[in-house]
Write a structure and sequence with these properties.
By secondary structure, this protein is mostly helical. The chain has eight helices and no strands.
């Protein structure tokens, strides 16, 4: 299972249980894999969060949802997000996502600004970051006829 991609302890436990492995054996197997260094939730959680923020330009809410879906403990997810997503990094990721999506700038008009806002909100950015990023990109765009 680990040959395809790294798994969290929770994912490994669910996969083993799905194959009919008894619960005590699942717990022992997960513990042994952790001892061997084949399962490292903290390192994998940090790596995924950083990759999703830098590479895919996701916001903290979407990263948290994705990490929860990968069965990382809630406390670990919160700690990793505090570490990986300081306010400046979140704002930079939002700006980069907008620049990539709207390469020519946000077209003028409230509807287009709302579309850009919805795009960022859907990627998991907080409302204040969405407003600031849309405002900055819209003000950097040459004014057109409105």
């Amino acid at each position: 299972m680990l040959a395809r991609r790294p798994l969290s302890e929770g994912e490994m436990a669910i996969r083993l249980a799905g194959k009919g492995v008894p619960e005590p054996v699942v717990a022992g197997t997960v513990a042994r894999l952790r001892e061997l260094g084949l399962l490292d939730d903290a390192a994998l959680c940090r790596q995924l969060a950083g990759s999703w923020q830098e590479g895919r330009r996701y916001g903290p809410a979407k990263i948290a949802r994705n990490l929860a879906a990968r069965r990382f403990p809630r406390g670990m997810v919160e700690a990793v997000l505090r570490e990986v997503s300081p306010a400046a990094a979140v704002a930079a990721a939002a700006a980069a996502a907008l620049r990539k999506r709207f390469r020519g700038g946000i077209p003028p008009g409230r509807e287009n600004a709302a579309k850009a806002y919805r795009f960022l909100a859907g990627r998991g950015f907080p409302p204040e970051v969405c407003r600031a990023a849309v405002g900055r990109l819209a003000s950097d765009t040459p004014e057109g006829d409105d």
